[in-house]
Automatic annotation (TrEMBL), chain A:
<feature type="region of interest" description="Disordered">
    <location>
        <begin position="560"/>
        <end position="614"/>
    </location>
</feature>
<dbReference type="GO" id="GO:0007264">
    <property type="term" value="P:small GTPase-mediated signal transduction"/>
</dbReference>
<comment type="similarity">
    <text>Belongs to the Rab GDI family.</text>
</comment>
<dbReference type="GO" id="GO:0005968">
    <property type="term" value="C:Rab-protein geranylgeranyltransferase complex"/>
</dbReference>
<dbReference type="GO" id="GO:0016192">
    <property type="term" value="P:vesicle-mediated transport"/>
</dbReference>
<dbReference type="GO" id="GO:0006886">
    <property type="term" value="P:intracellular protein transport"/>
</dbReference>
<dbReference type="GO" id="GO:0005096">
    <property type="term" value="F:GTPase activator activity"/>
</dbReference>
<dbReference type="InterPro" id="IPR001738">
    <property type="entry name" value="Rab_escort"/>
</dbReference>
<dbReference type="InterPro" id="IPR054420">
    <property type="entry name" value="RAE1_2_domI_C"/>
</dbReference>
TrEMBL record, chain B:
<keyword id="KW-0458">Lysosome</keyword>
<protein>
    <recommendedName>
        <fullName>Ras-related protein Rab-30</fullName>
        <ecNumber>3.6.5.2</ecNumber>
    </recommendedName>
</protein>
<keyword id="KW-0547">Nucleotide-binding</keyword>
<comment type="similarity">
    <text>Belongs to the small GTPase superfamily. Rab family.</text>
</comment>
<keyword id="KW-0472">Membrane</keyword>
<dbReference type="GO" id="GO:0005794">
    <property type="term" value="C:Golgi apparatus"/>
</dbReference>
<comment type="function">
    <text>The small GTPases Rab are key regulators of intracellular membrane trafficking, from the formation of transport vesicles to their fusion with membranes. Rabs cycle between an inactive GDP-bound form and an active GTP-bound form that is able to recruit to membranes different sets of downstream effectors directly responsible for vesicle formation, movement, tethering and fusion. RAB30 is required for maintaining the structural integrity of the Golgi apparatus, possibly by mediating interactions with cytoplasmic scaffolding proteins.</text>
</comment>
<keyword id="KW-0488">Methylation</keyword>
<keyword id="KW-0963">Cytoplasm</keyword>
Length: 614, 203
């Protein structure tokens, strides 16, 4: 089998992607503009034979709504500042890539035309690259301070005290965020890996783990009585805790130990099987603070409607994940969650998968007689044949999805100047599950990342808030943001400030993302049986949903094959000398699109970048 | 793998247009052979060679593009935590030289600031077909603050030199870094690799 992966976007991962700061700003702009892509069906209709019909795809991503961004610092000073070494992620093609420009195969290499490095030119040839406004090329090396990667000509005299960063570590200006934008890797989805979750197992089994590195979440937090506190959850934590009394320690340990082996003690909970977990906790002689910790921070379940058994199982899952890699059950990938889909893509590519970004697919071609999909037409009108097709939900057209009812995820992303719980170490990765403020509202999951996760600049924190939507993201999440953070601009803050000093929000964005998980296949209108739909991200904290989905799709296509088998160790690989030369090597220089020969057993994967599939 | 017998381990990443001979360079260096009539690279993730430099064992992990350069779709994670980059073009192919700025932009964005970059013009055995003069390439590499070398993977010209010189530079850089040891700024690669960690339990 061979895999061809085509995506109209110029980045991997769809809604699973992460962006630099400037990349995220471009993404926001694009989502706010909501330009309708003109439906250019005229030309390629001619390419459809009589015994074929067409299912159009939609390359204008409609999965993101209500995008609102806010800057709480002085933005003026940042006007002329540009990101050092930035390469805007959405310049030419983007998801509106179907607009004219992308039609011409020549264009693929066109931006290079004027970048011919002239022997005499002493100016930096990279900065001459056309078509990219946010591009600034720092002088490579030369400047000793990494923060001063900006070319003097572009930045001019902004007041940002770059050299004095050491003296004034905590004051981050918007200009600095922009300039250091490359240091940010801002995920559109916010998740953690359960250390015994399906994704970790899959990463290890498939060896895809070699492409990524991880950090432990260092703290589990709780919000109780207006205060953020750390939750002791491992045995060591409990014993060392200063916030718990001896009695509380004993009660907590007893309860946690019970949850680990609850199957052996059905008598202890079966009377409560029809009651909520919160009610069950109330009968266990646990103090209110312990009940809060267990319910909201360890089991992380709903007070109102989580059953006793579900709560016990959630607690057990948490405890089982503890201690595998550290003192909390969670891992976070360095450079962000957006690395994960790319790592799977890399493994696939190593074994022959072909990857084309900035390449959109117009439609599926269905054989009328068999009802099966036989090919796709791309934006050049090329026909690409395959046996199996995987398409992400977001590429399906409105008519295909007319009977589908989507849930939504509310997201907020903040850049802040301090941690929500200050301790000796600034480098903390924390998770806080905020109980609902009003009944009927969902709990909000908050993940705070420090700069050593390689997702934000020094002395800043990246805070992700996530919950299933009931309203717009801002309506759902702003009350929580206001509880935990200060939204004042610098000048105001000096005057006020009696209560405990909250972290200041420097920049924020809210948006709603479509949750297409859990959609029954039959809700999609007339999809051929060899077209498989994978969903976008779900709202859960872990990644089990995506892994299960990928495996299910794979098993349906190839019931006898192993899913993501371990590859041979590169150190032991013996290379076959008689490899058939499949193409004219040596002279294949230009990145031109050539029609992919349709391999006998080819699988075409379209836009399924978010899935850790092969 | 983590506890093996070496003093230094470096990740070196190859980039450049399809067909310039990236895989051939690695195989010449690591295996001492030149694969004739090779097509696009399949199955090569990275190759390893341990060399001894001034009595120290240096393990070089050399990563190949897995064919993703063909449609300019290299994953960002490929560049993460690379200690050095080898930017390769084909001296008989003007186009592969013209694309260098594009590759430099990718490096700017995704690789660490501290990465060492070497510009390599490959295929000097095909001198009669040369399209990119040595002088142009040298000037370009100077402007970009890169090391520059011409090689022939086929004739094995300069291939050893390329990797051994690079290893020397990486060693001296690593020494400086441990001396300076700037704790404040996190370095790539400080995270954990999950497969090598041992497990312990809640109790």
């Amino acid at each position: 089998q061979r895999v061809l992966h085509v995506d109209s976007k110029n980045y991997y991962g769809g809604n699973w992607a992460s962006f630099s700061f400037s990349g995220l700003l471009s993404w926001i702009k694009e989502k706010q503009q909501k330009t309708e892509v003109s439906d250019e069906c005229e030309d390629w209709r001619k390419l459809i034979l009589e015994n074929e019909e067409v299912i159009s795809l939609d390359n204008s991503d409609k999965t993101i709504e209500h995008v609102e961004d806010f800057c709480f610092g002085n933005q003026d000073s940042a006007e002329d500042v540009e990101e050092a070494g930035a390469l805007s992620k959405l310049p030419l093609f983007g998801s509106s890539g179907a607009q004219g420009a992308a039609q011409d195969p020549e264009k693929e290499s066109a931006p290079v035309e004027n970048t011919l490095p002239e022997p005499a030119a002493s100016s930096d040839p990279a900065s001459a690259t056309g078509g990219n406004e946010t591009e600034v090329t720092p002088e490579r090396e030369g400047s000793p301070d990494p923060a001063s990667g900006e070319p003097a000509s572009d930045v001019g005299e902004t007041e940002a005290p770059t050299e004095n960063a050491a003296q004034e570590p905590k004051k981050i200006t918007y200009a600095q965020i922009v300039r250091e934008g490359r240091r940010f890797n801002i995920d559109l989805v916010s998740k953690l890996l359960y250390s015994r979750g399906l994704l970790i197992d899959l990463l290890i089994k498939s060896n895809v783990s070699r492409y990524a590195e991880f950090k432990n979440a260092t703290r589990i937090l709780a919000f109780r009585e207006g205060k953020v506190e750390q939750v002791p959850c491992s045995r060591a934590d409990v014993f060392n805790s200063k916030q718990l009394t001896m009695v509380e320690k004993r009660l907590l340990m007893k309860f946690l130990t019970f949850c680990l082996e609850y199957e052996q003690h059905p008598d202890e909970y079966q009377d409560y099987e029809n009651r909520t977990f919160a009610e069950f906790l109330g009968t266990r002689k646990l103090t209110p603070s312990l009940q809060h910790f267990i319910l909201h921070s360890i089991a992380m379940v709903s007070e109102a409607d989580c059953s006793t058994l579900d709560g016990i199982q959630a607690t057990k899952k948490f405890l089982q994940c503890l201690g595998r890699y550290g003192n909390t059950p969670f891992l976070f990938p360095l450079y962000g969650q957006g690395e994960i889909p790319q790592c799977f893509c890399r493994m696939c590519a190593v074994f022959g998968g072909i990857y084309c970004l900035r390449h959109s697919v117009q439609c599926l071609v269905v054989d009328k007689e068999s009802g099966r999909c036989k090919a796709v037409l791309d934006h050049f009108g090329q026909r690409i044949s395959a046996k199996y097709f995987v398409v992400e939900d977001s590429f399906l057209s409105e008519s295909t999805c007319k009977n589908v009812c989507y849930r939504q995820i509310s997201r907020a992303i903040l850049i802040t100047d301090q941690s929500i719980l200050k301790t000796d170490s600034e480098q903390q990765v924390s998770i806080l599950r905020m109980p609902p403020m009003d009944s009927g509202q969902p709990a909000v999951c908050i993940i705070e990342l420090c700069s050593s996760t390689m997702t934000c600049m020094k002395d800043s924190y990246l805070v992700h808030l996530t919950c299933p939507s009931s309203k717009t993201a801002r309506e759902d999440l702003e009350p929580v943001v206001q509880k935990l953070f200060s939204l004042n601009t610098e000048s105001e803050e000096e005057t006020e400030n009696e209560e405990v000093e909250k972290p200041r929000v420097l920049w924020a964005v809210y948006f709603n993302m479509r949750d297409s998980s859990g959609i029954d296949r039959s809700s999609y209108d007339r999809l051929p049986s060899n077209v498989y739909v994978c969903s976008g991200p779900d709202s859960a904290l872990g990644n089990d949903c995506a892994v299960r989905q990928a495996e299910t799709i794979f098993q349906e296509m190839f019931p006898t094959e192993e899913f993501c088998p371990p590859p041979p160790n590169p150190e032991d690989t013996v290379y076959d000398e008689e490899e058939p030369a499949s193409e004219d090597s040596g002279l294949n220089n230009a990145p031109e699109m050539k029609p992919e020969p349709s391999p006998e057993e080819g699988g075409s994967e379209e836009g399924a970048t978010g899935e850790p599939e092969k | 793998m983590s506890m093996e017998d070496y003093d230094f381990l470096f990740k070196i990443v190859l980039i450049g247009n399809a067909g310039v001979g990236k895989t051939c360079l690695v195989r010449r260096f690591t295996q001492g052979l030149f694969p004739p009539g090779q097509g696009a690279t399949i199955g090569v993730d990275f190759m390893i060679k341990t060399v001894e430099i001034n009595g120290e064992k240096v393990k070089l992990q050399i990563w190949d593009t897995a064919g993703q350069e063909r449609f300019r779709s290299i994953t960002q994670s490929y560049y993460r935590s690379a200690n050095a980059l080898i930017l390769t073009y084909d001296i008989t192919c003007e186009e592969s030289f013209r694309c260098l700025p594009e590759w430099l932009r990718e490096i700017e964005q995704y690789a660490s600031n501290k990465v060492i970059t070497v510009l390599v013009g490959n295929k000097i055995d095909l001198a009669d077909k040369r399209e990119v003069s040595q002088q142009r390439a040298a000037e370009f590499s100077q402007a970009q603050d890169m090391y520059y070398l011409e090689t022939s993977a086929k004739e094995s010209d300069n291939v050893e030199k390329l990797f051994l010189d690079l290893a020397c530079r990486l060693i001296s850089e690593a020494r400086q870094n441990t001396l300076v040891n700037n704790v404040a700024s996190p370095l790539p690669g400080e995270g954990k690799s999950i497969s090598y960690l041992t497990c312990c339990n809640f109790n």
